[in-house]
Design brief:
With 267 residues, the chain is α+β, with helices and mostly antiparallel strands. It contains seven helices and five strands; from the N terminus they run ααααβαββααββ. It has two domains: 125 residues; 116 residues, Histidine kinase-like ATPase, C-terminal domain (Heat Shock Protein 90, 2-Layer Sandwich). Helix 3 crosses helix 4 and helix 4 runs parallel beside helix 5. The longest helix is centred in the N-terminal third of the chain and has 89 residues. The protein is elongated.
Length: 267
């Protein structure tokens, strides 16, 4: 009976060990499956992000290419035609007493303004020019043109020692700046715009645009999914991501808006 009990004990012990091994094997297989699934999901998420970034980058590059073509056409065709018309008006043999003199002068004044506006648009759209003159001067040129319109007061300040910025990143920053100014003019009802560029001692390029307008709910605006709402803000955020910049948007109803972009600058 003792030997029989001992055999039962051994068989039971072996059964328990085998059961534990089986359970352990199942747990291990489940763990490997979950881990593999997690890794696959992570890899798929990374691939999706990379794909979206490459798609956005391609779209923005196509946009810049289109800007170049349009700018060149404006300069070579429309700009030249306007210049010829201006020259033709200037050589008309009219004295001040002629009935058409005042009308011709008004046409020349309007034509001068159109030529100036076309020239400004051409320079703003042509990305090569932005790379040539630098981000500071590109912003200054844009703000000078805005100041001449009399739509709003403008202040611009550059501080710190300028660092060299990657030309492609500089173009992205400038397009973000244009989007900020465009949104301000369209929606903010601001009477003052302050723009600051700072080259900080910790190798960062910082662009800040502030206005004293009516403000808005930035978080809500970015989440809106309508075809026309929040597109400008999303474009700025996407551009910032592509060049490794940080963008912060602070706005409250009645207290204006402040947008800051920080870009690490390589030494």
């Amino acid at each position: 009976m003792s030997d029989q009990n001992q055999e039962i004990y051994i068989i039971t012990l072996i059964g328990i060990v085998l059961a534990l091994l089986l359970i352990g094997s199942i747990v291990f297989v489940v763990f490997l499956y979950q881990r593999r699934r997690f890794i696959q999901e992570k890899e798929l998420a990374e691939i999706k992000v990379q794909f979206e970034q490459e798609l956005l980058r391609s779209q923005l590059e196509m946009q810049e290419s289109t800007f170049k073509i349009v700018a060149q056409e404006l300069h070579d065709n429309i700009g030249q035609v306007l210049s010829v018309i201006k020259l033709s008006l200037s050589i008309l043999p009219l004295d001040k007493n002629h009935p058409a003199y005042e009308g011709i002068q008004n046409c020349r004044d309007m034509l001068n303004k159109v030529i100036f506006d076309v020239s400004h648009i051409t320079k703003s759209m042509h990305s090569d020019r932005i790379s040539d003159i630098g981000i500071d001067e590109a912003i200054r040129f844009e703000l000078d043109a805005l100041r001449k319109t009399g739509l709003t007061k403008v202040d611009f300040e550059v501080s710190g020692t300028p660092n060299s910025i990657n030309p492609q990143k500089a173009i992205f920053i400038f397009r973000m700046f244009q989007e900020m100014i465009n949104n301000t003019l369209k929606h903010a009802q601001a009477s003052q715009i302050n723009v600051g560029v700072n080259y900080s001692t910790d190798n960062k390029f910082v662009l800040k645009v502030e206005d004293n307008g009516i403000g808005f709910n930035a978080e809500k605006k970015q989440k809106e999914t309508t075809s026309s709402s929040g597109i400008g803000l999303r474009n700025m955020v996407n551009r910032a991501k592509l060049i490794g910049a940080l963008i912060s948007i602070h706005s409250e109803a009645g207290n204006g808006t402040a947008i800051t972009v920080e870009l690490p600058v390589e030494e």
